[in-house]
Amino acid sequence: MNSLILNGVAVALLCAALPAHSVPLWKRADYVQAIRSARDGAPASALRILEPLHRAGTLQQPLVDDYLTLLVWAGRDDEAVALAEGRYPAYMLGPGALNILARHQRDRGHYEAAESLYRTSLRKQATASASAGLAMTLAEAGRKSEGMAVLDAATAAGAADALALDRARSYLLAMSDEHTAALTEMQALLARHPDDPELARSYASLLVRIGAPHEAYAYLKQRDIAAPALYNRMLLDKAAIETRWGKSETRLEVGENRFRMTDLALASNEQAGLGLLPGDLAARRTAVADRLVALEQRARYRDAIALHRQHADDAQPRYALAAAASAYLAEEQPLEAIRLSRQAMDGTPRRDVPIDWRITLVYAHLEAEQPDEARAELESLEQDVQRIRYDAPSGQNRFNPAYQQVRLLSAMFDAYVGRTRSARGRLDALLEDAPFNGELRQDDGELELMRGHPRAAADIFGRRLVDDPRAVEAKRGLAAAHLDSHRYADVPLLVADVAALAPESPSTRKLLERWKWSRRPQLVIDAERELSGSRGEGDDGGWGVETRLYSAPIASHWRAFARSYSSRADFVGGGRSRRDTVGLGAEYRGPAWSAEGALTGGRNGGGGFVAATRSFDDRFSAGLRYEHDSDQVPMRARRDGVDGNRLAAEFAYRVDDHRRFDAAVSALDLSDGNLRERIGGSWTERWLVGPSYTLDTVLSVGASRNRGATGVGYFNPRKDGEVGLTVLQEGLLWRRYDASFRHRLGLYAAHYRQEGYGGKPASAAFYEQEWRWASRAGLRYGIAHTVHPYDGDSDVANRLYFNFDWRF
């Protein structure tokens, strides 16, 4: 027994002493048998032989190729890829291993890595299989023309190579958008290889793509070709076709009928997904991508976002990324929409990117408050979309409908950043070419709303609804126009109609939100604090607060309100004055008239006011106001027991959001016999406007006279007048949809002239900030510094103020 053991040891030592090249591992019988087993689906034995060498670092070619191939066959794909990217780089691998790794990367959707591996393989040895794999990889990455070029350049060494290249060509043809040419070429391939099942499957796939799934199914059954995976893919393609039909339906129908075909597509997609094999990764990716598109089209934006996040680590096709970007934008997440839009377009020539994707990117930049980036993308879009384009099916040059779409977007971009006059001119030019185009007419109304012309907008939307009574966006616009022009009684039916027809639309949600808060109570507080001077009236300090609490609307146009007013003044040299009043009133807001009135009372007695304004159109309005025991009586006069009544008339002509003219006359009849009469006017003009900056000027002129009393204890010039210019700058510091933070700087210079004292300069400056944390709530506060002559002496005054406006 001991001798047998010693003999065995001796034999083992002898074998170990033999030169390594005398018995190469890949020629050993046990290894050859292990490789055969691996090809039959059992790679474990071969891996057990190679892994000790791999761990010891002594694995050499051609065993490195075998080892990486076996890892892929054993399902350890990621491990094989990691080794090929590190320990065993691509340059040391053979074509066979490179092709297997490339196919694995392609199946996972890692097209750049797959392309690199295939090209390395071709540099080592130009084979038909590598050319075919590279062509299909490029096609799946959206570069079909490059894939065809690879096949055109490839050569076949024999019949097997020719078949491999033709199969790859048929695969690319099945993805072609030129269906007629693809069918012709596919039939030529079938004539060369009439019995090849792979070509038959590609032909069936092409039939499905052109909208003939039933013909595809019959074709395969007639030839008795088993293709369970293809049948499931046919179901997926059927769902994709239904999604495309559904997209047209969303534009033609209203209400839930818009989504009938899209809902069918979602059901078909779910059914097809259940039948997919676990290992069919490409089909599963397609099912997820198509479902994401259908969910976005169905306006189930949150479901689309959830599906995208669930598969965020998987490679997703470009069209799915674009759909996800649109869903994120609808849910007010523009930064994520920008990222996904860029990702969807990366690597694709700019002119080949679908126009809808690029328009989504423009809006995403706008909503992310990135106007410069939006403008740059829009300019490149205008360069790429020409008025006339070549129509391949007819072989003729035709008008490009996308041209009008892009020019309209460019015009409305100007409006979105405040350049409404420029937008008006550009939109008018488009309307001259297509006066009955629904989209142009819709934006025509939207633009008039931005310019402050709600009645003109209502006329535009109303005429559009005569031509197309089902136009939901026109109903939304008409509701907004009625809100702006105080036609509240006409709003509820429109809002209910819009909510029933398009509840999922972000525009509908905004309209419903606005309508909701317009019917809620409102609190408005105006307060100021005098720090010194108080316009020559001898105040050393003081403050004033006016508070109004409005009820919810009553009978559409009415609101009740409670009002309180408190004011204090401390005078230089001693003395103090105060005023406290409270009151109840009512307000009316209608399309032609607005009015308010209140009865007030306090320690100084009873009072009140009544006012009415007539709006003749979008531009001209005139109003009259009477105040009994007016708050305009100077506080120094009140210290001496003086009160007064005031009558005022106001006129306004608002050309648009860039230009406005105002005029006013008033008379304050004081109880000491004095009559203070004023007249004034102003011209407001906007000179510069941009996404985050505006520059306005206000040219004002005014004059007054006081008669009937002399020697009074308050500032009482016999006659005076003032001409001044205000330069007002506004900057947008931050904004996210309805929330914003702005600041303003106003500089005023004037010449003031008082009878008996001559003329002197006057000046003022103010700085304020305004927070709006929602469309229904805002806070504005600031500081003002004034220098003004009174009885020949210039007086300096400083004032703090704030305004709070809240609907609750």
UniProtKB/TrEMBL annotation:
One of its GO terms (molecular function) is poly-beta-1,6-N-acetyl-D-glucosamine transmembrane transporter activity. Coiled coil: none annotated. SUPFAM superfamilies: TPR-like. It comes from the Bacteria. Signal peptide: none annotated. It holds the Pfam family PgaA_barrel. InterPro entries: PGA_export_porin_PgaA, PgaA_barrel, TPR-like_helical_dom_sf. Residues 523-808 form the PgaA membrane beta barrel domain. NCBIfam families: PGA_TPR_OMP. This is Poly-beta-1,6 N-acetyl-D-glucosamine export porin PgaA. It comes from Crenobacter cavernae. The gene is pgaA.
